[in-house]
Predict the structure.
Amino acid sequence: MHDSAGTSDSAASSDGSSSPLGSSGDSQASHAVEGLRVDFYILDESSAGARLKLACRLAEKAYLAAQTALVWHTDAEELKAFDDLLWTFMDGSFVPHEMLTAGASSEDTPVLLSAGTAPPADIDIIINLAPEVPTCLSRTRRIAEIIDGDDSRRRAGRARFKAYRDLGIQPASHNVRA
């Protein structure tokens, strides 16, 4: 994996903005993305398993760096598969995590999983597995997007890349070999 997969940026403001995409003159949307770093990790492989495994590695890297992470997805079934994979993706690996609920806190659990619920506090990195831009951009300073070789996920990834650029963000792309 490219070294820039590190999670060295710290959390940013929490202005409560609920939508990442506002009109081009929307100062709240501009404030939400100010200083936001977006990295696209591009896999050659088309299997969802490779995409989820890379997300596990990014979540582990954040945890080992003592940072908080939110794995964002809108597909509850695939998020459950990711939850299961976090326990088994690598021998000897341990990534404390739980589903984001009313009682969940990144202070208690460094990696939270969400099927569309915004975190109650700032997060160091959002690992986006959803086909859309996360609605909680104002809660982080860093987003990791993982794109595999599946045609529909590539198209959705291109749409997200364009959405970030429309917000004034220049995403970085990293090719990842299996």
Observations:
- The chain has a mean pLDDT of 80.
- The chain is about 30% helix and 20% strand.
- The two ends are 8 Å apart (CA to CA).
- Residues 43 and 148 are 5 Å apart (CA to CA).
